[in-house]
Amino acid sequence: MDVKRDILWRVYLSYILVVIACLAIFGKAIFIQQVQGPHWRSMSDSLHQKLDEIEAERGTIYSEDGQMLSTSIPQFDIYIDFRVDALHEKSGKLFRENIDSLSDCLANLFKDQSAGEYKALLQEGYNNEDGYFMLKKKISFREYESLRHFPLFKMGRYKSGMIANEKTIRLNPYQMLAFRTIGLARDSNKVGLEMTYDSLLKGRNGKQFVRKIAGGVNVPVDDTYEIEPETGKDIVSTIDVFIQDVAENALMKMMIKNEAQTGCVIVLETKTGKVKAIANLGKRTDGSYWEDFNYAISPTEPGSTFKLATMMSLLEDKKVRLTDLVNLEGGTWHINGQTVYDAEQHGLYEATVKQAFEKSSNVGMAKLAWNNYGSNPSQFLKHLSKMRIDTITGIDLSGERIPTMFKPGSKLWGPTTLPWMAFGYNVAITPLRTATLYNAVANNGRMMRPYLVSAVKDEGVLLKQFQPNVIDEKVCSDETLRQLRECLEGVCIEGTAAKLFKGTAYKVAGKTGTALVANGNRGYADQIYQSAFAGYFPADNPQYTCVVVIKNKSRALMHHGADVAGPVFKEIADRLYSTYIRQSNNITVQVKKTDSSSFSYSGMKKELALITSTLKMPFADSTNRTDEWTNMSGKNATVVLSQKMVDKNAMPELKGMALKDVVYLCENMGLKVNVKGRGKVAGQSIVAGQPVARGQLVSIELN
User: How confident is the model at residue 68, as a pLDDT?
Assistant: First the structure.
């Protein structure tokens, strides 16, 4: 019995000790959870929280006429924190009372799931007490604004648990239009104006505490910032959307027609050097064309358009007169073991210097350069340096490459370098440099630095204005200038471009160019020709200078400058003459009358109200909030502001709206926008009130 009692005593003791240990563990768990819980949770949060950099909203790039070329729009990732206390109080009464109506609203807004599916999704997240439940990614600002007023979410973050993670995306409303010049705004690969003016556009980033959740996503701890982000400055470019569109379309048509490899067009405003258009197209592997590279600032052998530089040197040194004779040898000339060929067979022998230029004779230019500078080539190169041929233009665009020009004494200088240089070989310059030289001739000898940005603004307030910059007041004498203009006009009257410009309503001055270009290691064996045309118009009062350069496919049947680049130049010149130049010449002075016209515009109320107050225009207001779409209409200086109804499922009335507002409104509705023209909206392809769906295309016509 004693043995049995001893064993039982030990068993009971062990059992009691185990029970005491379990009670101690259970008690400690309750103590940690209930008493020390806030301390440990805050420590956990501190380990997962960090002060993160919040990217500032990037500034907008505008065209000179106020159209958006590149802008930023906000996007939001929406999460729900189902751990917030308010959702679990009174057995989850708040959540249960709102889940049905919230599910209906989500289904109506996004139209990707039914209300029942949304309810099941939300219920699952609630049951799991998911701290960062992903509801929706990449929603627009307009969708986010609607979301904030939904059942439950309208109660705020600390009751609903809704968390919005904001970010911005870069949008090019005109897509390919001047795409390479405007540039990309990717983190590691900015190009164009986005790169050149990055320090102004990017603004100053802010600081905000964020918490890392599953998948490595950072979400804000609260809605406040430690350091408020500062929006970037806006820049106003010199690009004219209409001119850019005309240039790009004209270039595209010829590229497709001739199956060309690459091409570029540059249009300068003659008197200022402003770049009004700069189009660059390259052929992709699928046969389509895209603005893939800025060919306008990449050096290439210019061909016969370079003969203007040769003529300027000869005339400035008074080596020749336009009436002097030169033997063109029928288009073939042998020198130092090599043969110079004229691109087009003309059969001429004795010709004047002017005729040699007009017929674009390589033989004529080579002979004149060799006979007059062969013994002293440095004199010729000195003239080229004065014309800035051996330097970059200095345009405010990153990526401009340095020209190539051989000099006597270098290992690349040979006995045929000078004569070949006279007609555009053994030298490589950018099309923009060619445009700058021709623009100087058009501008009475004054060479302007081409530039792309005319102003910097901050929320509409002008911070800095860029003025035209004169590089050289006089690139040559007035007499040389007169003779050069005579030669350039002669090309379009009696020379290689005579047929192209026959019957044109305005005078053109220019030069054709056809150059055989190398194809990498294969050299010239593939017979790839580069067609060019450089000139200005109207010749008697130049307004625009234009250069077209197109690199054709191998062994293209049509490759002469007058046949490929010339028609592109002419189409651009015709459109600009009829749209801008001829109309400006027909302006008549009218007697000022009292404005009795009616008007109608649309936009955000706060912006329209700012306009009316700035202009001191009294108005009647029937609207409520400052953040709603508003119509502004009136007659005889009486202005009325009324609410503009916008239905997410129906096409809104866009007439009278500015492009920026149209893009903002339509993109947030999920519509794709195709824009033609400039100014305010005059027409839309989808009638107002008609049902629309996300991804649908709407064409907008501006007035």
Answer: 84
**pLDDT greater than 70 at residue 214:** no
pTM, rounded to two decimals:
0.72
* Model pLDDT, residue 488: 98
In sequence order, which residues have a C-beta less than 8 Å from that of residue 305 and are 6 or more positions away? 424, 434, 438, 511, 512, 513, 532, 533, 534, 547, 561
Q: Please, which residues have CB within 8 angstroms of residue 390's CB and are 6 or more apart in sequence?
A: 384, 403, 405
- Supply the CATH classification number for the domain 241-585: 3.40.710.10
Residues 39, 45, 48, 49: is their CA dihedral positive or negative? Answer: negative
- What is the three-class DSSP state of 469? coil
Domain ranges of the chain: 50-174+208-231, 241-585, 598-702
Question: May I ask the CATH architecture of the domain 50-174+208-231?
Answer: Alpha-Beta Complex (3.90)
Mean pLDDT score, 140-154: 87
Contacts of 494 (CB under 8 A, 6+ apart): 358
CA distances, 198 to each of 55, 227, 453 (Å): 13, 21, 13
Please give the Cα distance from 663 to 60 (Å, whole number): 14
Once rounded to an integer, what is the mean pLDDT over residues 117-143?
87
Confidence of residue 306 (pLDDT cuts 50, 70, 90): very high
What percent of the chain has pLDDT above 70? 82
CA nearest 196: which of 62, 397, 456? 397
Instruction: Say whether 266 sits in a helix, a strand or coil.
Output: strand
| One-letter identity of residue 555 | R
- 172 contacts 69 by C-beta, under 8 angstroms: yes
**Cα–Cα nearest to 584, from 509, 678, 506:** 506
The Cα–Cα gap between 618 and 535 comes to 52
End-to-end, the C-alpha distance of the chain in Å comes to 113
* pLDDT tens string 333-372: 999 989 999 887 777 889 999 999 999 999 999 999 999 9
Which has more pLDDT, 385 or 168?
A: 385
pLDDT of residue 51: 62
